[in-house]
Batch of 4 targets.
Target 1
Amino acid sequence: MAKLWGARFEGGPAPELAALSRSTHFDWVLAFYDLAGSHAHAKALAAAGHLTPDEESAMHAGLDELARRLESGELVATDDDEDVHGALEAALVSVVGPELGGKLRAGRSRNDQIATLIRMYLLDHADVVSRELVRLIDAIAGQASAHPDAAMPGRTHLQHAQPILLAHHLLAHAWPLVRDLERLRDWRGRAQASPYGAGALAGGALGLDPAIVARELNLGEPLPNSIDATSARDVVAEFAYVAAQIGVDVSRFAEDVILWTTREFGFARLDDGYSTGSSIMPQKKNPDIAELARGKAGRLVGNLTGLLTTLKGLPLAYNRDLQEDKEPVFDSVATLELVLPAFAGMVETLTFDTDRMRALAPEGFSLATDVADHLVRQGVPFREAHEIAGALVRFCEERGLQLHEPTDADYAAIDPRLTPDVRAVLTVDGSIASRSGIGGTAPSRVAEQLAALTAAVRPL
Ligand code: ARG
């Protein structure tokens, strides 16, 4: 196929150069966006008088024919094609002839083209990712509302800390995903700006109106600086960051699922359809979805760091290094589009052993803070209350008792202010109900946050 450049070169490119330079094996996914850009560009050319009305319609017809050939699989990249832009232009020339086909490139460069197409691709996939995020958030919220009073041990440092509601814990994994949705929405505003019309770097000289292209492509305003428009990839990196953050947020939940489904925890069971077996150990049921989600978070972070590293030392304006923006971010998209549906299915079908969770909730003296809080409500300074509760824990630990089990006399011996009415707060439900501050684990507060979460969730 005819190259986009070559006149000033004596021979063709060395095969090693061609092999290194070629990007069609990954940028072919941009082919339909490239055609949409060409339709829009043809309109701008016609509006500026560079194409007659007849030429314009022949151009659109030729581009439609290319779309048909792409869809049918007739049009594929050949080894001679450097990138998707060159391949499609060569194909256009073969459909509409060199006279008309040769006119489309006027006033545009692959530099402003590619900067636009990657935005279009990411905007579309941000929609897909956001729908999958909503499904996952709904799955978590569904489990939370199905278990309004299930209690469990809340942990810090992975040690028993204070009893909490399972719903509260689950929703703590949903809120970061809601913020990821907000991040995508906010990113979208920046991603919608249009680089088309910036040319190679210095802007257009043919009187084309970039607003026509932007409007046709459903983008926002043309970018105000042609150098920035063709050379910056912060919008791509920002998408890669949000993708990495989603990966990390899902991975944190994955780690809980992996722990909860161990024999030692025994808090949750995976549905057969969402767990895997072992090739040698017949009894095994493994949390592979959670593990792959956790593993792929590393890959998403790697895509972000790789891309940022590519960008960090680049001089203005376009440099070929920028071709390296695509594979990592395409991989991030593909990874999320695989992980999120599987993870949502796993969460939707998870079952909980709520009796076991409740039984373990008060273990490890997790009600000790309730003793201290009770004393504070009686007017004891917290530092002293902490000491008294600590002495009670020690007393109980030495004798193998729970906090409510010492006699009234034992309480009094530990401290006269430790009166028997303390036992009223030494229940899991009492402890949970008492944490009724904003955002707390009391059932009324958890119901409130579930309603707030549901109201906050909407796709882009
Ligand atoms: N394939 C390139 C990219 O992905 C776009 C082409 C720009 N090439 C050039 N020689 N100016 O960034």
Note: The chain has a mean pLDDT of 96.
Target 2
Amino acid sequence: MFDALTDRLSGVFEGLTGKGALSEKDVSSALREIRVALLEADVALDVVKKFIEEIKPKAVGESVIRSVKPGQQVIKIVNDGLVEMLGGNEDAKGLRIDNIPAVIMMAGLQGSGKTTTTGKLARRLKTQERKKVLIASLDVYRPAAMQQLKILAEQVGVDALPIVEGQLPADIAKRAVNAAKLGGYDVVILDTAGRTTLDEQMMSEAARVAEISNPAETILVADALTGQDAVETARRFNERLKLTGLILTRMDGDGRGGAALSMRAVTGLPIKFLGTGEKSDGLEVFDAHRIAGRILGQGDVVSLVEKAAAEMDEEKTKRMAEKMAKGVFDLDDLAEQFKQMERMGGLGGLMGMMPGAKKAKQAMDAQGLDDRVMKRQHGIIMSMTAKERAKPALLNASRKKRIAAGAGVHVSEVNKVLKMHQQMAGMMKKMGKGGMKQMAKAMGA
Ligand code: GDP
């Protein structure tokens, strides 16, 4: 599916993991190669740019996980970026069929694989979701298309709406919905007529069908082999039809696959399925993690890094808990908390487990501590010497001035960090051993 891209990337990754330490130059040149590989795979330029921009600071500024190589960490970062580009976890899987009968409208250019995909979906809904399915062809221009759908229905064992000559697409849609209601169908799939190019008549006809049938899903079927044209088709259809998702066909071909990678980012629409063959079972649920894994071919590395990162967080949490039990919470600990929070995209591991966490979070919110502020505060702490971090009492006016200059902030910002540290240290102390017990329990110890 993405063979050429996978080959290119595996070369880049070999170079990265072959080295023990990575310089900024190593990472930059690897990212340059990844950029070229994606462009060669026909991924849209804007999408590639955004992807590289997003992963670069992470790859360059990666925090060190001792048990894995830096190159492996970069692979994980590239993987996560790719998953994000493909829609991450947020996509609803499968089709929305809450209200019965649910209408699924299929749109797309002629030859994109619309009719074949209609058959595939019908089969899937019937065999895997035990739905009663009715399919209807709205292609009044090509009697052969209507026949094709009828034969498909027989093959996959669902009902097709009887063909009535001379009806308009909108009338057929109405008849299909009525028949579905009367016949107790769960789902009715409307296979609309396509043209070989985007034209106004096709669009307005499809819009009319949508108006009449009020689809739960309006799916664009696009041929992945047509590359950037498929992306443009999706964009144009979406302007007129309020699409709810995409299905990319011919993913079994040896095309460059870039369309599939750009689609989501360009249109903002979820890719729901991939067509992977001419037969009615050639349909695959789209899963961003699985596709990223397939493209990178580095599944083992990714899970290794995930595991190591989780272990590291746990180890640090334990170490900090031990310190806290003794009533110690220095600026290094605060810096670590900032970092953990950034990694976890929210309240840090340690704090999340503690009874006082809510209060601490409130204190942070009260000071307007969002991610950006947190990064700045982390920067301030990093401008201190190790001695100062371990013993904040050392921080007199001249030291504060030096730190502020180093971090490029006003002295008042340094004071803010110190105040926050004091508040948190006080809170941690209060929790003392009682907090420890709670935490040990939360960690399953
Ligand atoms: P429509 O005009 O959009 O309805 O397109 P069809 O469903 O008639 O498909 C056009 C051609 O593409 C047919 O020969 C299908 O067998 C083929 N096709 C559809 N989907 C796929 C797919 O996922 N993989 C492959 N290899 N061929 C497909």
Note: The chain has a mean pLDDT of 83.
Target 3
Amino acid sequence: MIRRTLSPAKLARPGVRFFRSDLVGTDTWRMHQKDQLAELRARDEYVDVKASTVKVAVTGPAGAIGYSLLFRIASGEMFGKRQRVQIRCIELPFAMNALRGVAMELQDCAFPLLDGVYCTDDPERGFEDVDVALLVGSKPRGPGQERGDLLRENGAIFTNMGKALNKFARKSVKVTVVGNPANTNCLIAANNAPDIPIENFTAMTRLDHDRGVGQLAKKTGTAVSDIKDFCIWGNHSPTMYPDISRCTIGGRPAKGALESAGAEASWYTEEFMPSVQQRGAAIIKARGASSAASAGNACLAHARDWELGTNGLVTSMGVPSSGQYDITPGLFYSYPVRCDGGNWSVVEGLNIDDFSRQMMQKTENELIEERDAVSAYLP
Ligand code: NAX
């Protein structure tokens, strides 16, 4: 049980830490007292912390998503307030200085659960013995660059990531690929790590899932927790299929609930689907920068749910297809999944109507094209 109150008896501990008497009353003394209180408060809040440490590697930690993600991992939001974490940051050489600044800030937060931050530009050392790897860093699309060239440039990066994970990470490592094109980067990394089970690799489509849930909640004026069985199928790209055919809102079928909320029949296909599919571009247009806090949040939720379970609820993850719903085996395809006991499983046996089938195939075809464009990186 987490105890949140401070016992006065505990605070009255004079002489626990040495302090020069001539400095009493100065700013240094006040800071010393504050630290002592913070330490006691932390000790009280984070009770029964496990002795073991989860090692989490993050690539691209000096980037925008990394900056929002690292602090939340360190505060215990990913694995709970009883689990120590060590963060292993892997950056490109040019960004090492910026990364050092981030590491200093992490240190300055004095997170009680943080068992050290390790910074390197060498993936092999960064992945040593890790339990979780969040592959956020990737090569962004240059101005006017063809998608095929982008896929190939990232192909080389994710080949190396896969090989380094295979050699140095724990065989039980859980890998989440965020860096775009996420599904195909994940395919490449997984195929270059033959000693790690393929189901330990996943691509993040949780941001798309959460964007859909957020929009449905707003449209119907309900809480996000009232929305169940929504999912994203396929690629993390504008071809993805945000599916509400089995979704319920406040216990009612989504289409009926939307109608009652005044949504036109065409709202789903004309507004909702395109806005989920194009949300990334809309954020860039509005903010002048790509989604960072929401992407970091989605990464956190993805890894947390995979580890700690979804409690029977459905979410979306890009996972290796073994032919479910007639999707080409081997592709990393976003499916509706549930997580339990540290494992994900695809929700099977759903009825797929003609419209859904068409949408699911469209995004599957794009993933097949991407797979063929990077065939040189698939051993
Ligand atoms: P930033 O450009 O801010 O940061 C990327 C960081 O990765 C940089 O610090 C860079 O030095 C580092 N990096 C690049 N290649 C690396 C490598 N080989 N090894 C280690 N570090 C490397 O981008 P940010 O906004 O943080 O986005 C990161 C990635 O997430 C991008 O590929 C982006 O497209 C992708 N996204 C994926 C999303 C998803 O839902 N799957 C949504 C958000 C985001 O667009």
Note: The radius of gyration is 23 Å.
Target 4
Amino acid sequence: MPKKIFFVLLILLPFISIAQNNTGIPIPMKKRIVFYDKSFPVEGGFIKHEFLIAATKWFKNAFPGNAEPFHIGASGDINGTGIFKINTGPTGDYYDLRFKLEIVSNDTGYTIRAYNFYENSNIKGKSHEYSKIEYRWWDYRQGKPWSVEDKALFMGLDADMTAMFKSFGNDPSIIKSARRMHTPKFKVLAFFSTNVEEDHVDFAYDAIKFYKKMADQKGFAFDTTSNWENLNDANLEKYKEVIWLNEFPHNEAERRSFEKFMDGGGSWLGFHVSGYNDKDTKWPWFVKFMGGAVFYNNNWPPLPAKMIVDDNKHSVTKHLPKTYTAPINEWYGWKPNPRLNKDVKVLVTLDPSNYPLGKKDVITGGDIPVVWTNTKYKMVYMNMGHGDMNFESPLQNKMFEDAVLWLGK
Ligand code: ZN
């Protein structure tokens, strides 16, 4: 590695604290040990999944002879051991320098840290055991000048750390994972309420967890709000897609803003009770938007149910088989049936073999669409959304994912 470049860069590095010494080498220390760290801020979100893959690759390339394999910890951090070889003499004398290396990411960026440095001399006539690098400060801390060898060791350490940060910060795939964070593919805003039926609140929290993780992995922005006043023109302008997890707007201003959003090319995913409407909801536009579907009946208690997938080619249902069993949910029947609307494309239907479905409230028959889209809009309604079991089916989860991706396009 060309040492010249590293020394030029030294002055640019923002060290946390600098232990000056008579060699003029600034060695950063924290809690009395040599401690290097550098943070790389990232604005506007973070694709941690991609970042971890990129950082792991970088780690493998940077330390191919890693004595201990690094690993990704439970918190998603990368831990491992780095080793540098540092030449300290003109005749090929060198030290192995071993240290703990951590790569940590959070919502605002990522940080790389190196500490617990140990050195091992390969010089004839000296012990070949690892010992703490801080012991090499001993003479210096006692006010004695640094030996030529120690000076070379610390200069090498500092140059290699500088090179390491530079290599990490310039890694193309790490930069790429950061750049994609700046420009999410699309932005989603999920509305939910906490003062509604408990099972509907449970669903909202499960869904938020599910979609936040997915947003991280797929590179879109996923914001949530329980303040329905955020359903206004100025705010909706920032989003491509709106989700209603467990509620619908009750006041006129919010309803008008939503209509404008949808008419202007916005997209919508509604779950369960968010599509509920009856004679008391008094929102004719929304009934049309739902393809004419008005709530008719339901089963109670919530139960799992067999589904028929009407269309395996549609982007929302392309990963589903012809039939599957959906986890426990409260299922709604509709009158009029949205299938009667020529603009409606039904994607999933309640299998009639489920009937009679229920105990207290029993659905005894009928053609009951469960997932559909009104092709006049970019919208999908899914009847799932009651209770804490809805995300227990990997198959169905795929549909939950595919819907958000399709609507985000
Ligand atoms: Zn419900």
Note: The radius of gyration is 30 Å.
